[in-house]
Specification:
Strand order of the largest sheet: 3-4-5-2-1-6-7-11-12
Function: Synthesizes alpha-1,4-glucan chains using ADP-glucose.
Number of domains: 2
Pfam family, one: Glyco_transf_5
Number of strands: 18
Number of helices: 16
Catalytic activity: [(1->4)-alpha-D-glucosyl](n) + ADP-alpha-D-glucose = [(1->4)-alpha-D-glucosyl](n+1) + ADP + H(+)
Keywords: Glycogen biosynthesis, Glycosyltransferase, Transferase
CATH class of the largest domain: Alpha Beta
Protein name: Glycogen synthase
């Protein structure tokens, strides 16, 4: 089985969040399971790596293109270099333009390298145009929605000429969406099968509450048997408390206590239990709910927050950082993230929606019990006898769940049993990777 993944980011070469983590782990496990796997992504100016150039040429209506290659973990990584990506950072305001350019370069670059996949698998809206083009060529295609909120929209009258797609795509049955080009919709309509990153999220996005305006398309896909949820896995080597170089390594509760003591000493925290947060600062992640709940939380918890994003949320946390029980570290700091996962007693994820989520899996693997809202992948991954779940997206509901966690924390034997159950859960990529390969085999057989 020859599989080509198309993505906007892939760890460790480029990453802004969970998408990069998934594409850094899933292909390697698929390669271990016998597939020939290629991952195609942009060659960013800030790419963490030095690809060897394997092709250069002019692609009609795109212009000069270079393709670089790296191999790692049995996976071939191809990086497509375009002038539009020769700037700092990954994402920018003109990304619909940039990723239509990228999308138009991918299939010609694969052809130039004589690479013909059995299945092409696109990820999120940045790969939607490639999936649509592959559909027109009759290639078997899969498309995964990692976050439906981001759709790649631009005024259709301006953007239609960028894509190279036929006129049939610019209708309500194609990629048109309320007068816009919608590249997420292009991927949904063009794919032979659509997956999301958890079974619960696959159900939620067919509703008006979570469907982001595309629920009609997603209901249609469900009725045709073309939408399913495959739960994301976790990179077991990168997130392993027994070998993690960033924390006091441990495999049991005694080691967990050492990690907690180290985090407490690092920030000068008092003896209250520690509630950790590692997150983008965004309304989707419920960070405004966390901030509103802080007056209640600090009565029982030290709260350690790592993250960056919304300036208003950032400013609010900076203000709260004057409190002796609130620590706020702005930005992304992977070693500190590891120390928080390992050293916190509980971990808060008050998300308004969460397609899958990796943080709750990491937390449980490190003996830290999640306090989560009942949505998306948080429902699928946090058992009621391990973590603490709440239904309403309100600061009051979050505070009550944290109060329940604090009460449970006083029963040290009961808490230890929860920790043991959480650390024993299997979130490896082995099962999900096999599910994807089974899907590819069905698509290729058609």
């Amino acid at each position: 089985m020859r599989v080509v993944h198309v993505t906007s980011e892939v760890f460790p070469f480029s990453r802004s969040g969970g998408l990069g983590d998934v594409l850094g782990a899933l292909p390697a496990v698929q390669a271990q399971q016998g597939a020939q796997v290629t991952v195609v992504s942009p060659w960013y100016a800030a790419l963490a790596g030095h690809p060897a150039e394997v092709w250069t040429g002019d692609i009609p209506e795109v212009g000069p293109v270079r393709v670089g290659e790296l191999e790692q973990g049995g996976v071939q990584f191809l990086f497509v270099a375009l002038d539009e990506f020769d700037r700092p950072g990954l994402y920018h305001a003109d990304d619909v333009w940039r990723f239509t350019r990228f999308g138009r370069a991918v299939l010609p670059a694969l052809a130039a390298l004589d690479l013909h996949p059995d299945v092409l698998h696109g990820h999120d809206w940045q790969a939607g145009l490639v999936v649509a083009q592959a559909h027109d060529l009759g290639w078997p295609t899969a498309f995964t929605v990692h976050n439906l909120q981001y759709q790649g929209r631009w005024n259709l009258a301006e953007a239609a000429g960028w894509t190279g797609l036929g006129a049939a795509w610019f209708s309500a049955e194609g990629a048109e969406f309320y007068g816009d080009l919608n590249l997420m919709k292009a991927g949904l309509v063009g794919a032979d099968h659509v997956t999301t990153v958890s079974p619960q999220y696959a159900r939620e996005i067919t509703t008006s509450e979570y469907g982001e305006g595309l629920e009609g398309v997603l209901v249609w896909l469900t009725l045709e048997g073309r939408l399913s949820g495959i739960l994301n896995g976790l990179d077991q080597e990168r997130w392993d408390p027994r070998t993690d170089p960033d924390v006091p390594t441990f495999g049991d509760l005694a080691g967990k206590a050492a990690a907690t003591a180290a985090l407490r000493a690092e920030f000068g925290l008092d003896s209250a239990p520690i509630l950790g947060v590692v997150s983008r600062l965004a309304d989707q992640k419920g960070m405004d709910l966390l901030i509103e709940a802080l007056p209640e939380l600090v009565q029982h918890w030290n709260v350690v927050v790592l993250g960056g994003g919304d300036p208003l949320l950032t400013a609010a946390l900076q203000g709260w950082a004057q409190h002796p029980r609130v620590i706020f570290a702005q930005g992304m700091n992977e070693p500190l993230a590891h120390r928080i996962y390992a050293g916190a007693d509980a971990f808060a994820m008050p998300s308004r929606f969460e397609p899958c989520g990796l943080s709750q899996m990491i937390a449980m693997r490190y003996g830290t019990l999640p306090v989560v809202r009942e949505t998306g992948g948080l429902v699928d991954t946090v058992p009621a006898d391990v973590g603490f779940r709440f239904a309403e997206a309100t600061p009051q509901a979050l505070a009550l769940a944290c109060q329940a966690a604090h009460t449970a924390f006083q029963d040290r034997a009961g808490w230890a049993a929860r920790v043991d159950r959480g650390m024993a859960l299997d979130f490896s990529w082995t099962g999900p990777a096999r599910q994807y390969l089974d899907l590819y085999e069905r698509l290729a057989a058609r």
